[in-house]
Amino acid sequence: MDESAERYKGAGSFQTTGLAGVLRSIRFTVSGAGTRSGSDLKPAKYDGYINTGKRVSETSLVAKNDLLIKTKGAQSPATPIAPNRTKGALDPMSMMWLSLRDQTDATLCQIERTQFDGTRLVRITLKTRQQDGDSVTCSGTYDRIGGYSEEELAELKTSPLSVTYSRVGEIWRATEVRLTSRHGRAKLIRRD
Q1: How far apart are the C-alpha atoms of 57 and 128, rounded to whole Å?
Q2: Of residues 108, 61, 109, 116, the one with CA closest to residue 87
Q3: pLDDT, tens digit only, all 192 positions of the chain
Q4: In 3D, which of 43, 74, 39, 77 has the Cα closest to residue 57?
């Protein structure tokens, strides 16, 4: 990531490794950019490649009037999403950065935002705080709220989610993410 007082841009990736990678290869590669206002992010553009082992998608989004508009990507939502429901939503790269960037005491465990990837709309909440010395775990949920089929929602509508941060001087740095998805439980470990 590259972040200034007014702007941010960056790229991130995730892929399964070890036994998980042998059982199912999952890979996400995302990039994006936008503007900042204090600690808040406002996306301008996003590109993503997702391969879940069942589904492969490439998507590009651009922001217009506080809405994320899909400019590339063949996948359509299983159920239509009214455009006004995506107003103010973050793209997956911006949401990743909002959650995983260094936090202050004031911003720690204060996330409640929607995310739109061009096909699906989710609400991500990290509000519950549990501290153990110089480590804090922020817990919440990943709620599927638009673009999913009834079958997908019946399988898993809400997933537990947590991010663990460790104190580094005056800031909190993300070190681990735990989540449950339709593919099972996952633990992501920060690697600098």
Answers
A1: 33
A2: 116
A3: 899 999 999 998 887 775 554 456 788 899 999 999 888 899 999 999 988 777 788 999 999 999 999 999 988 899 999 988 999 999 999 999 999 999 999 999 999 999 999 999 999 999 999 999 999 999 999 999 999 999 989 988 999 999 999 999 999 999 999 988 776 787 878 876
A4: 74
